[in-house]
Amino acid sequence: MKRIIFLFSIIISNVIFAQSVKDLDIKNGFKHFKLGSTPNQIKNIKKEERQFDQSPNISEYIYIGKDIKTVFFVPVSHINLTFFKNKLYSIQVIFGDIDKEFTQGQFQEILSALENAYGRKWHQPTNETGVITDGAIWNGEKVRLELFRVNFSKSYSEPSDYDLNTGYIQVYDKEMQRQRSLSEF
Q: Do 107 and 166 meet the contact criterion of CB atoms below 8 Å apart?
């Protein structure tokens, strides 16, 4: 009887983990930002004058609203929204800046909350440059969620002059990311 209960609990835990990653696809974004939206459908955004990505298909915005000050009790520095062919494909919530770094404890708080929401079945990122100090990736069928803590002074090839720990949550549409990559080739 104990073996049956043990086996049943393992099966149930696997089903729970599998279903929780599917919640990424159901949510399809972050807070009130929905992947696939146009800039006109989102309030309180400002177009970036100097874009990091110079592709004509990409437009970058910063959220200027005042309603998202923290995520899981961790202060938000700013929120970047990236559009591909006028559709939101990436939401990036930035933690930490020059004045206040993103600590390992804060990373753990967010990781714990995301594990409660999407399960413990996440993957560690590759760290070819050496800048990622902590990371977790959840892969849904359509949506990918990344939580990273980074320090650019740790870069193997081009270390920065300052020792600053920042981090981010990035949620993006996997198909639009693929289309974006194809458009650059």
A: no
